[in-house]
Automatic annotation (TrEMBL):
One Pfam assignment: GKRP_SIS_N
Catalytic activity reported: N-acetyl-D-muramate 6-phosphate + H2O = N-acetyl-D-glucosamine 6-phosphate + (R)-lactate
Lineage of origin: Bacteria, Pseudomonadati, Bacteroidota, Bacteroidia, Bacteroidales
Coiled coil stretches, renumbered: none
Protein name per its UniProtKB record: N-acetylmuramic acid 6-phosphate etherase
Gene it is expressed from: murQ
Length: 270
């Protein structure tokens, strides 16, 4: 089957510079509404991936996200939100972007074309067969990601891919291929738009469901969140007060003594 780059196909809209601001916004929103249903179709693959991630992480495995450009930035974003949200150490979900830290803010020339660099970076993190490598590339053709997935798979490491084109070279290197087909972008080829939105949604789904399965949420609350600002301290105090049926001041003291909602709950009940 021939590989078609839907991500590079012409936009359904033209003469964008002639449209009013309202028309532009409404047309972008029309396209954005297609993203959630495209993501919905990938749920069986996401489920398969999460079910394989959880036992690996219980044995000390880690998730590595790899991508270039927007895809790389979204992987780094999701990874960086895990410690404050779920109180996990920053070493368990790691985002790698072609070109390194500099590429988060500035394009790094030819970084994504290096087929060996992704695997080299994984080796720098002492990757093992307990770990999981998730490649992210709207096009599904990024050499940096493809090379890393190929090598990881050769070493018996679970691999997955998130792309916006069916039957991509990247998907061929993955044990579990998540193909979210959102169609041509509003601005032709601008995969930071629908593809980026869908990638963010899928990464949220993967990491949130994994963390819930690992016991980092109770009821519907982030009981392990880091108390890094006043808003989060207040949220934690209210959680404790509600859960234990005690006053605000008592739960405030309890929280500050033990440093997390989970530890405070355990201490109070024992």
């Amino acid at each position: 089957m021939a590989f078609t780059k839907i991500t590079e196909q012409d936009s359904y809209y033209d003469n964008l510079e002639c449209k009013s601001v309202r028309e532009l916004l409404e047309d972008i929103n029309t396209e954005d509404q297609k993203v959630a249903s495209a993501v919905q179709k990938t749920i069986p693959q996401i489920e398969k991936l999460v079910l394989q991630i959880v036992p690996r992480m219980k044995q000390g495995g880690r998730i590595f996200y790899l991508g270039a450009g927007t895809s790389g930035r979204l992987g780094v974003l999701d990874a960086s939100e895990i410690p404050p949200t779920f109180g996990m150490p920053p070493t368990l979900v790691i985002g790698l972007i072609a070109g390194g830290e500099k590429a988060l803010r500035n394009p790094v020339e030819n970084a994504e074309d290096d087929v060996n660099r992704g695997w080299e970076e994984l080796q720098e993190h002492q990757i093992t067969s307990k770990d999981i490598v998730i490649g992210i590339a709207a096009s599904g053709t990024t050499p940096y990601v493809i090379g890393a997935l190929r090598k990881a798979r050769e070493h018996g490491i679970l691999t997955a891919s998130i792309s916006s084109n069916p039957d991509s070279p990247m998907a061929a290197e993955a044990d579990i291929a998540i193909e979210m087909i959102v169609g041509p972008e509003f601005v032709t080829g601008s995969s930071r738009m629908k593809s980026g939105t869908g990638q963010k949604m899928i990464l949220n789904m993967i990491s949130t469901s994994v963390m819930i399965q690992l016991g980092r949420v109770k009821g519907n609350r982030m009981i392990n969140m880091q108390l890094s600002n006043q808003k989060l301290v207040d949220r934690g105090v209210r959680m404790l007060a509600e859960e234990l049926g005690i006053g605000y001041n008592e739960s405030h003291n309890l929280l500050l003594t033990y440093g997390s909602v989970k530890k405070a709950l355990e201490a109070y009940r024992h």
